[in-house]
Amino acid sequence: MIAQQVIEDTCEWAIMHGVAFRQADNSARHCPFSIAPMTMKLDVYQHLRNVTPMVAKLINRVSEDHDFLQASLSDVAKADPFFGHLIQLHHQAHGDTNNRKSVVRQPLLLMRTDYMDDEQNGAKVVEFNGIAAGMAPFGQKATELHQYIQQQWPHTYQAWTENPSAIPEKNTALTQLASGIAVAAFKVKNEAGDSGKPTFLMVIQKNEDNVYDQHLLEIELQRLGIRTVRRTFEQLSTELSSGEHQRLILQDVGGIDVVYLRAGYQYSDYYAPDMDQHECCHTLSQTRLFIELHNVAMNATISQQLATSKTIQMLLTMMPATDYVRWGLSIEEAILIKSVLAEMKPVNTDTIAWFNTTANKQQWVLKNQGEGGGHCIFGDDISRKLKQLPAKEYDAWALMQRLYPREREVPTMAIRDSKQTYIDNLVSEIGLFTVTFINVPATTLDGYAGYLVRSKPANEGEGGIHSGQGILDSLALVD
């Protein structure tokens, strides 16, 4: 057991440093966290560090291959209404194969590639996160929290650490992400010839509870000389206009240099209760499209959101490495990327028959196109779901090899709501952040931008920090 004094001290540290969620009454609740870091073999981590910028390079180029996106996602657009809506917006922005439009927005891909280190097959991609890919600040702060525990409460840290000889891995996800954004912001500002500070616009959800992770990024950007503003799509629908040379103008603020979407990955982000339901969804999604028609650095573009979808992940997994040359990758880079892609299968009558008669059902997970937690179905529940699915919705789903990461070798303590919970089967997911700005040489932004570790009990299907049984964690390396 951990002394109550240690729990209170670490929870207060977490809240004081912004590792918290806002509550309905405007109080703060600390994020759940582990008391000591997970360990990973050095060679596994180095492999992921090496391959992840290449994954980002691939996704960045796929996202600008508009012919490929429209052709590849036409079926899922019919099967998933939200993706159908995104494809419509994509056509409005970029036209079609016979009438391709040029746009001036400057893609800024802030991506988190999530991995699990499978016991049998090694580290594999869980998913690509190209929109609302947050929690870089929490990733860095979790590392700093463990450093604090190691220094302030060394006996507690040693008692619960997995391997005393493991070396904590430095994590500057917050500062690196902010630095990449700043490069884009100053570039767009200089091109516009405006005076004053560059301006960063974060598009947020109304009544957002994850404000502290967002504010930590804003504070770092402010330190770098950037003004930050926050708006919902509903607010932006009446506050945006066009300036000279397709400059994006925000009412009472002026020119906008970077737009960062922390909303827009689900239908509800385009719904405003005070507006007519059909009208509001059209108006707010057109607001997103309006932003993209201006000279602004942007994450996530509609194209980036489509390129990081489960369907594109499946297609990249299924195609041979030689096909990657379409996007300017070498065969060596393609083979490296393929080494971290877990097997995926489309949902159709053949795969359903195979799954129900031949497959080991525990080795697969069924996923739809949804972002975040709550979109995965496991084991025997897959057969039940496939039986319920109408054929017209098959293309919205995919089967993916289920990953079984090794369990932590020693038990740990999770701290949640200022209470400790003993866990003897903790598994971890590591997300590696990358920053790719399409108009800046690779030497300026080297790609990798820190990490986020989230852990959960092995028997829990959902490991979200918000709603699941996930806890913030950090990383220590062993030979």
From TrEMBL:
Pathway named in the protein's UniProt entry: Sulfur metabolism; glutathione biosynthesis; glutathione from L-cysteine and L-glutamate: step 2/2
Record key words, sorted: ATP-binding, Glutathione biosynthesis, Ligase, Magnesium, Metal-binding, Nucleotide-binding
Name of this chain's protein: glutathione synthase
Domain of life: Bacteria
Enzyme Commission number: 6.3.2.3
Native source organism of the sequence: Shewanella litoralis
Family label: Belongs to the eukaryotic GSH synthase family.
UniProt cross-references to PANTHER family, sorted A to Z: GLUTATHIONE SYNTHETASE
Pfam family, one: GSH_synth_ATP
InterPro entries cross-referenced by the UniProt entry: Glutathione_synthase (IPR005615), Glutathione_synthase_a-hlx (IPR014042), Glutathione_synthase_C_euk (IPR014709), Glutathione_synthase_N_euk (IPR014049), GSH-S_sub-bd_sf (IPR037013), GSH_synth_subst-bd (IPR004887), PreATP-grasp_dom_sf (IPR016185)
Cofactor(s) in the UniProt record: Mg(2+)
Keyword Cell membrane: no
Domain (Glutathione synthase substrate-binding): residue spans on this chain: 199-307
